[in-house]
Amino acid sequence: MERNYDEILPDKLIHLDKNTALLDVIEKRMERSEKRMELTIRRMVKAEARLEKSEKRVEGFDEKLQRSIVKQEQSFKDQKDFSVAQSKVNRYFIDYINSSNQK
Q1: Could you report the per-residue pLDDT of 41-57, keeping only the tens digit for each?
Q2: Is 3 helix (H, G, I), strand (E, B) or coil?
Q3: What is the DSSP string of the chain?
Q4: pTM above threshold 0.90
Q5: Rg, Å, the chain Cα set
């Protein structure tokens, strides 16, 4: 079987050219995809930084809230203690008045 290289070579060159063109298209798509991925990563990094910043602010608010709760609980305890003492004083005076009225 005799090969006709004059026909085979141009066919191979045409296929090679088509493959090269397809490879160029694929490379361009990959470059665009890589750029999109890079932009997405940058956005994610910025979003993460904003999230961390807001978390720090929330932690500050949490600390203030905890201090406020502790102060409020102490205030309630102080008011309760004062109320108990006032009740005892009132009971003493009521008992004193009742005992002086009976005499």
Answers
A1: 999 999 999 999 999 99
A2: coil
A3: ----HHHHHHHHHHHHHHHHHHHHHHHHHHHHHHHHHHHHHHHHHHHHHHHHHHHHHHHHHHHHHHHHHHHHHHHHHHHHHHHHHHHHHHHHHHHHHHHHHH-
A4: no
A5: 44
